[in-house]
Design a protein that fits this description.
By secondary structure, the protein is mainly alpha-helical. About 55% of the residues lie in helices and about 0% in strands.
Length: about 80
Amino acid sequence: MLAAVLLVTLVVTLWQGDIGMVIAGETLTAKAVGVTLFGPWLLIVELGAMLLLAALVTASHVGRLAAPRQASGRDSSGKEGA
């Protein structure tokens, strides 16, 4: 349902809009983004990177603990299964 609404919105926007329109402004380069992020925002970017790394390690650890154990042919009482 949502996909249909988005498709209709896209078609209406393209139908009514001027396809030849261009957004005015300067081209944003990777160097400009880097200078902006690592200028006054250096501490925040580094803290965000550490937080994302900690989340990745935690997710890996939790995923490893949640993995099902291999069946050894024994039931919960420790007796051999048939």
